[in-house]
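Worked problem 6 (solution included).
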Amino acid sequence: MPIRHRWFRLAPAFTLLVSQPPVATAFVVPSRPGTGQALMDCFDHKTFNSDSPDAPANVALSLSREGAALIFSTCRDAEDNMHYFVRAPRPQQNGVCRAFEEEIFPATASDQIRLEVTHGNRGEGRYIALKGWTRSMPQGWAALNYPSRTQQYGFLTQSVCPRSDDENYVPLTNVTDDVLKSFQSGWGRIAASHQSLEAAIAKLPAEYIAIERFNTPERQRKLRERVVQTVLEGREHPIGYRCDTGNNCIATFHSFTVGFVPAPGGIALTKLFQNWQA
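Solution. The predicted structure is:
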């Protein structure tokens, strides 16, 4: 899981924070040892492809031969356990390249998992077999209700899909092809000029992290001005998308996030808030 995607995976927690009463505070609480959260808090993220000279031995073996199309990433949790994620690409379909990432676990030489790398039933060779891995987590982790972690990545293109560590791939959670296309076309029109962008965000609820005193009209004005400036200067591009039921979605940029819903011919923006790392 590349470090640049860490914020998007925390977006639901951030949304919860900004919805709390004014007494809420925003700070990082260290995970308690021996808990599922300690297993989830992962640091020292590294990504490996078939050209990486420093890949761990078990990863390097899986990236050889037919596994050369895969991407592995690792991180170390608060309990000093190593976590492994593998990302399998799919060919371009409907103008979208997608890759599917899941956490897998080291196993014995007789263990094996299969990763799908094509769409549907397209004949032989639609799976890559990886020996020495399993999808079954350690029993101790399961006892702590550690979740099975998966993530999908993708982007719009009419070209052949690049390797899935290409920077164009961004996290997608419950995002359909149509939603992705609606945002791209709608945001393209919104961000086309100073006037159109300013008009689109002028009346949106603008929020900071859950410290009520930060949500002053002056701070909200400055946030809107910063969004306009950075977008028009080409310094802001979406780095992730997430939708819930009813196609209520967010698009996360580096320093801010917008809420949107698909609308005829594009999108309708619903909210604006500053990312807490900005």
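Discussion: Confidence is low (pLDDT under 50) at residues 1-27.
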